[in-house]
Fold this protein.
Amino acid sequence: MVPSPAVGLLRSALVFGMLVLLKAASRIFYRPDIGFIGKTPKDPWANIRLVAFLNHTSLFEPVFLSGVPLRFLWRLASHGVIPAADKTTGRPLVGLIFKFVAHHVISISRERDHTWFEVLNKIDPGSMVIIAPEGRMKRETGLDINGNPMTVRGGIADVLLAVQSGRMLIAYSGGLHHVQVPGHFTVGVFKTVRLRIENIDIAAYIAEQTARGGEENFKRNLREDLERRRDLNCPVDPDSDSPARPRMTALK
C-alpha cells in the first residue's frame, strides 16, 4: 500500500523535528571541528544525491549533524534513504531513534539479498542516499568485530550506478571511540568531534573509475579509491595534539 502524500509529509515533519533535536543536542555536548577539503563548489550543499560516510566507529555518529545546515536536514527528512543493519534497527531504544533519521530507513541483512534490493528500489530522482560503505563498525583494535581490516564493500557501487548524477559528499570521520566505544555503555561528553567533507561530481567520478579497466573493474576500482581517500583524508584522533591532516575550508 502506497502511503498518501499527507502521511508522507507528516513523517517528513516528524523526522525533521528529530534531526533538529539531535543537531541541537550535539551542539550542546560536543565541540564540532568540521570543514570541507579539496575543490568545493560555491554552494557545497546543493544537489547532494549521495553521502558516503567513511571510518564508521560508533552509533553516535549523528553528533556530526551539528555541522550541517537545516536545509540538508529537511532534505534528509523528506527524501533521505538510509540502509541500516537489522542488528541496529532491532535494538529497543537506538533502533527506534535510527528509524527516524531519514524518510526511508531500511533494515538490511548486510548480504546481497532482497533487503539490499529494497534499498535500491527506493532510490528515485529526488533521493539522497546516506551509506557507510565499510558496512560495519571499527572496534578499539582498529579492526572489525571479527578481527578483519576495515575495507570498503561493493554496495556503494550499486548506489552510485542507481543515482548516476548530482553531487556526492564523502564524509571522513576522525573516529568517535572517545565518545562511545561499540559494546560499551559509557558515553563521553564535551569532546571534540572531527569531520572532513569532500564534494565530488558523481557522473565524473563514475567515468573516472570506469576508465581504469572498464566496467568489469568499476567496483574494485571504487573500493580501492575510497579506501585510499579514507586513509589520506580522515582527520587525526580528536584527543591528539597533532593538527588534522587535510587542508580544509570553513563550512558554509
